[in-house]
Amino acid sequence: VEGGAEVGVIDSLVSGHGGNLENLAGVLDQVNVSISDIRDMDQMTHLVKDYDIVFSLAGQVSHSESMRDPLLDLSLNCQGQLTLLEALRRCNRDTKVVYSSTRQVYGRPEDIPVDECHPVNPVDTNGIHKMAAEHYFSLYYEVFGIRSVILRLTNTYGPRMDLENDSKGFLGTFIRKALCGETVCIFGDGSQIRDLNYVDDVVEAMLLAGAIDSVDGKVFNLGHPEPVSLQRIVDILQTLLEFPSKTVPF
């Protein structure tokens, strides 16, 4: 919007999946909002026909929920992306897609740091389905010329993040409990390291991926050069807020 682009937002606003029109406060009158399901072919064919770049962020992100309801995860993360690609194939093959994947496609790291050549070996249905979606994008680029870039994201934080749902990741849980003065539990000894991405940096990376033609068809890890331990995250929070913490054998 700040760059003068015509921006459209497609969201089904399914409960529990993060969609909230309040997130568009301040720009709501400057964007085209459609309350639609990415799995609906007719709607998607109509909605994507006039756009130059699509940032595909829709889907299920909870790894635990993906194991509890793998068929829903399959529908959201595979059927949804395939429907988007089919809609583009039918009506707008010149569009470029920036797809937000996950570092979970790698599974348990064999080497640190993990680069894009690391073997993929997801350990849950969410990782499997996100990996399958990556292959859809690669296939449609090779066969139909629909350009795409795949970004494998790590833990993203910042304003408007979901703090209520523990299944969305440890960081939101840590922050919520810290704000409420509750005990933050670290499962393990706290030495486990994680990459953290600030949301503004993620947005900048996505905009660059959409604007630069030379990255078409490529996969990039989107992380931080300096990973941080779980204990260090808690220590930082405790410099700002008063709350107890403990480690739990795991």
TrEMBL record:
Domain NAD-dependent epimerase/dehydratase: 23-223
InterPro entries: Epimerase_deHydtase, NAD(P)-bd_dom_sf
Pfam family, one: Epimerase
Protein family (similarity comment): Belongs to the NAD(P)-dependent epimerase/dehydratase family.
UniProt-recorded name of the protein: NAD-dependent epimerase/dehydratase domain-containing protein
Source species of the chain: marine metagenome
